[in-house]
Specification:
heterodimer; A: about 300 residues; MetI-like fold; 2 domains; flat; B: about 290 residues; mainly alpha; two-stranded antiparallel sheet
């Protein structure tokens, strides 16, 4: 009896401790995001009030309306900005439309994911399933490229895009990003393909299937989860790519992706933190949602892609 | 025959990754101002490199890049290890929550993370300045992003937040791969928690820690977005990294020769770490012949 109650107390202590540790980690990981989230619902101007409100007393969707172009950045805002800048000049700002960069990013990331999956799955199939010389060497050549810093390739890529007349187009981001994502996707898919049973392939060979047919009719249909997980990495990777996107879009609003648009927004309206916060929330929401929903695959891919190999 | 499957991927990687490296290498020996037409430009040998090495700015950026790499990787390892062990030892129900939460900072694009931290570090209305004032530690909000020393460390804090949880995820996988019976044996032998951690967990986790640290260093050495988004390299050039300098030389000053010399320095540093990293992990690059 006595022992039981002391056990119970120890259990309680353990639960409290575990709860506190969990809270601390959740606070660490989500705290900064919470603050941006709360700011995005504040009335314009109240984000500067000291002491800050941890949750806006009068939450509003105003910032989102401005970002999405539903509401024009009015004269009131413009004059406030002018006052903060120390000028009296009131310039009417044009409608913002953050949906343009979101659309661009969706186009770029989806195309990149599809392109990288196609090219990488072909290579991964040969590496994991076919016999040929220089097998490990060709995997190395594809894989090591993924470790290179972007800054070493950025200038010649820019020049190449200029000579192809592709500057200020989405294609200037799509093509290089396909290449940037091939190393990891090839690796992830090669590992996945190598774990599929060989009997199916042997049976297909008996039926006279050629390698390309086996790839299309046997390997790919069996690999939906693997393709999906590799695709998520290519999608997220190209969604966040900034250096190249910033260089090749050259300040043209119509072709900017989300990371570039957010940075420009913050240069242009640097006193409107409710707007910038709303833009950050919009652009992060989708990524966080994808990462959370496909958490298991993300974690598997991360570990396979960096530590295990 | 099998080569045909590999060629498309190889063409892309060569065209957008290997060929540009050679090109950057060539650029770095030419005087290129507002042009990349090196065939008609003046060959200057090592002069770009000499000019870069001699400049105060390079030494600053080089020092900051190294300091940033050491500091972020060290703190990320410490915090990541702590979070991994916590996630590993709590009740399975809490473990599920923690694993989900750890993925979140990783999923945020680096430049967006930098913007987010710029608001937290805001000089007038930033939450950190306010919290420090509220606790009475300071009388006025510190200039997190405009004071040279503070700016350097603000960037490190932001990066640690962004990457520590990713380290945690990788280390968690390492922890999970330690066979449970080793723990059980240690428990039976009466080993206390701290002793178990030092004599069982840590040695068995060491290979994972090493690979994780190498992997993170590969990315920290090329750090770009955090500086570019948080401070733009300022105040002055105190938080400029080798990457931000290279980028500015390319796209602000349009001096491809000097920029390429900067890029080559980063490349060499990354290659040195990459060689060690590749040697650690390439043993696992095996497929059925």
């Amino acid at each position: 009896m006595n022992e039981q109650s002391s056990n119970g107390r120890r259990d309680l202590k353990r639960w409290v401790l575990e709860g506190l540790v969990t809270l601390a980690i959740v606070g660490f990981c989500l705290g900064p995001l919470y603050w941006i989230f709360a700011t995005s619902f504040k009335q314009m101007g109240t984000e500067y009030v000291i002491p800050p409100e941890f949750w806006p007393s009068r939450p509003t969707l105003q910032a989102y309306a401005v970002i999405l172009g539903i509401q024009a950045p009015g004269a009131e805002q413009a004059s406030q900005e002018g006052a903060l800048k120390g000028t009296t000049e009131v310039k009417a700002s044009p409608h913002l439309n953050f949906l343009i960069p979101v659309r661009n990013s969706l186009i770029v990331s989806t195309t990149v994911a599809a392109g990288a999956l196609l090219l990488a799955s072909l290579a991964a199939y040969a590496i994991s399933r076919l016999r040929f010389r220089w097998k490990i060497q060709s995997l190395m050549v594809l894989w090591v490229a993924g470790l290179l810093p972007a800054v070493i390739v950025i200038a010649p890529t820019f020049v190449l895009m200029r000579s192809l007349n592709l500057l200020r187009t989405l294609l200037a981001m799509i093509l290089p990003n396909i290449a940037y994502n091939i190393p990891l996707t090839t690796w992830l898919l090669a590992v996945y393909f190598s774990q599929l049973p060989w009997e199916l392939e042997d049976a297909a060979k008996m039926d006279g299937y050629r390698p390309l047919q086996i790839y299309r009719k046997v390997i790919l249909p069996l690999s939906t989860p693997g393709l999906f997980s590799a695709g998520i990495f290519a999608f997220l990777g190209s969604w966040g790519e900034f250096m190249l996107a910033s260089a090749v879009t050259m300040g043209v609003m119509e072709v900017q992706t989300v990371p570039v648009a957010i940075l420009n927004l913050s240069f242009e309206y640097r006193y409107q933190w409710t707007w910038i916060s709303a833009a950050i929330c919009l652009s992060v929401a989708l990524m966080v949602l994808i990462a959370l929903v496909f958490q298991r695959w993300v974690i598997q891919g991360l570990t396979a892609g960096s530590v295990k190999y | 025959m099998a080569v045909l499957f590999i060629i498309p991927a190889l063409i892309f990687v060569t065209l957008f990754m290997y060929y540009p490296i050679v090109q950057t290498f060539i650029y770095s020996f030419f005087s290129l101002h507002r042009t990349a037409d090196w065939l008609n430009a003046q060959f200057v040998g090592l002069q770009n490199y000499i000019a870069v090495m001699k400049s105060e700015a390079f030494r600053g950026a080089f020092g900051f890049t190294l300091y940033y790499t050491v500091m972020t990787v060290a703190f990320e390892l410490a915090i990541g290890l702590g979070m991994a062990i916590a996630t590993f030892s709590v009740h399975p129900r809490l473990r599920g929550i923690l694993r989900a939460v750890l993925v979140v900072p990783w999923a945020i694009p680096p430049i967006v993370s930098a913007m987010l931290w710029r608001w937290l570090f805001h000089a007038d209305a930033g939450i950190f300045g306010y919290l420090l004032m509220a606790t009475g530690l300071v009388s006025r909000p510190p200039a997190f992003l405009t004071d040279p020393t503070l700016a350097v460390h603000s960037i490190i804090v932001a990066s640690v937040w962004k990457n520590a949880s990713m380290m945690g995820i990788l280390l968690l996988a390492g922890l999970a791969s330690i066979p449970q019976d080793i723990y059980d044996a240690a428990k039976v032998d009466g080993a206390r928690t701290w002793f178990r951690f030092r004599r069982v967990t840590l040695p068995l986790l060491l290979p994972t820690i090493l690979v994780t640290v190498l992997f993170r260093s590969l990315w920290a050495l090329r750090m770009f977005e955090e500086s570019y988004g948080l401070t733009g390299g300022g105040p002055g050039t105190t938080t400029d990294t080798l990457s931000t300098f290279a980028y500015k030389y390319f796209f602000t000053y349009a001096r491809f020769g000097v920029g390429s010399a900067y890029a080559m320095v980063i490349f060499l540093m990354v290659v040195m770490v990459a060689i060690v990293y590749v040697n650690r992990v390439k043993g696992n690059l095996r497929f059925k012949e």
